[in-house]
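Sample entry (350 residues):
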Amino acid sequence: MNNNEPILTVDNLNVSFRTNTGMLRAVRGVSFQLRKGETACIVGESGSGKSVSAKSIMGILPGNAVVESGSIMFEGRDLLQLSEQEYTKIRGNKIGLIFQDPLSALNPIMKIGKQIMEALMLDGSMSRKEARAEALELLRAVGIKDAEQRFDQYPFQFSGGMRQRVVIAIALARQPEILICDEPTTALDVTVQARILELINELKEKRNLSILFITHDLGVVANMADQVYVMYAGKVVEYGTANDIFFEPTHPYTQALLASMPDLETKGRLMSIPGAPPNMLYPPRGDAFAPRNQYALQIDFEEEPPMFQISDTHYAATWLLHPNAPRVEMPDILRHRIARMREESDISVQ
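Predicted structure, serialized as tokens:
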């Protein structure tokens, strides 16, 4: 497969949940691509639909979920059309998943070595002896020292960062082509978070993995993303290369996310996004972000914006890109931050 070809294509995915008060529209017409050997990041607040999109790919949606339309193409097949038996040959084998909370992802009463061995022996192609040797290699590959000793320990004997490394080892056990990372550093402190991100990047290069990274924090993906998809209220509202999103953010929501990121240079109070995301039991008319957008136009409350093309790689769904829309400036705090980021990137290149 050519590196420019998508290994995974999600097209017009619509997922809702049955509730006692009606259908909750969690994912509304989401489309994105993941290319071979690249990292695509999906960013958005809690409830934006990013994790539901990931679970749709893995085929692990809860029983009250309804996939209303769309397709998820992988190796020439639509994953949404597979039987559960067919899915088991892909889930874990071809596509691995790192969960958000390593403590709940691991069995607390089973030694971690055995948990990795179980993943390795799932299809019966590996003996216990072979599985043990491979599990030890995986522990070493994810940076766990004294693997022989650690092999027979329980999850409670590991720190949060070490437990997440074990979860990564399990996800890599079947040598998947795609690794989905669903908020893998949320439960970790900043220092450990940086180490886990560095590890994921190293493994990506060594194993030629394609990574789909789910996060609510744009700062987390700044140094690892190739493509970035920004989601809000179940929709992709802006997407482009990492440079497009970090240096030329266009949708007011993307700008607000970037402006609210803390950094060492920020003086005074951080920007915050006013209001709250909409209740998706009752999807709003027009642009879902309009009630929180200080630049909202009248049309934002009446009609949903199309996806406007900004460049060959950069698109955003905002009426502010319409030729007749008034010109607005991005917040000063963000403009200064982008200027500083440009200077720092120029220095690092030199």
